[in-house]
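Design job #97: recover the sequence.
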């Protein structure tokens, strides 16, 4: 996959960060990693330090950082504290990725904004959704569709919208399990390591119950 042809959502970025595998994600998708500004906005670093800052005014990844900061503060025993501190360090790598030029926020174009706005509102019903998309997924769908880019998401509703937009034709997408399977196929990691990374992501709350690779006999 060449540079400049993908867009990824919060879930994919978050779980690769929590597994300490943002480097692997870059190898699989290409550098720099690209996200909508609704997923990561470098301008909200300052506002996030203010206790009065409203979560809805922050990008999704900034809200994730705040969640893990709170979890670290609330840890009640040594083991929980160590795990929370490690998770926070890994999540906060998002800012370093941006500063190093490895994470690029992508602004939606004038033609992409109406589609994204509809998907977070009443327009979602036109695509068979009972619940609107989140702002990050909606932006990813709009950017991916309008530009023909690969979307990296594990949001089934977002993929449902793209299937409707592409009228049932094949479209480029990646899911976490698919990315880890490809990592093993391309020898970036072993199959057992791909499965271990998937299990580690699940320990952080990732909902996918399958395995990227068959168990070795």
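Job complete. Output follows.
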């Amino acid at each position: 996959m060449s540079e400049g042809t993908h867009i990824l959502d919060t879930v994919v970025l978050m779980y690769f960060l929590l597994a300490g595998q943002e480097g692997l994600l870059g190898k699989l998708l290409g550098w720099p990693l690209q996200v909508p500004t609704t997923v990561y906005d470098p301008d909200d670093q300052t506002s996030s330090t203010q206790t009065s800052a409203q979560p809805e005014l922050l990008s999704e990844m900034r809200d994730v950082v705040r969640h893990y900061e709170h979890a670290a503060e609330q840890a009640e025993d040594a083991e929980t504290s160590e795990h929370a501190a490690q998770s926070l360090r890994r999540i906060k790598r998002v800012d370093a990725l941006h500063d190093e030029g490895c994470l690029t926020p992508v602004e939606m174009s004038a033609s992409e904004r109406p589609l994204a706005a509809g998907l977070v509102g009443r327009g979602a019903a036109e695509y068979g959704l009972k619940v609107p998309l989140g702002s990050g997924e909606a932006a990813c769908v709009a950017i991916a569709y309008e530009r023909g880019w690969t979307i990296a998401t594990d949001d089934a509703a977002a993929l449902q919208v793209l299937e409707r937009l592409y009228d049932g034709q094949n479209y480029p997408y990646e899911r976490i399990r698919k990315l880890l399977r490809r990592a093993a196929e391309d020898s970036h990691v072993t199959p057992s390591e791909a499965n271990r990374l998937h299990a580690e992501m699940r320990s952080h709350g990732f909902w996918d119950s399958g395995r990227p690779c068959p168990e070795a006999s």
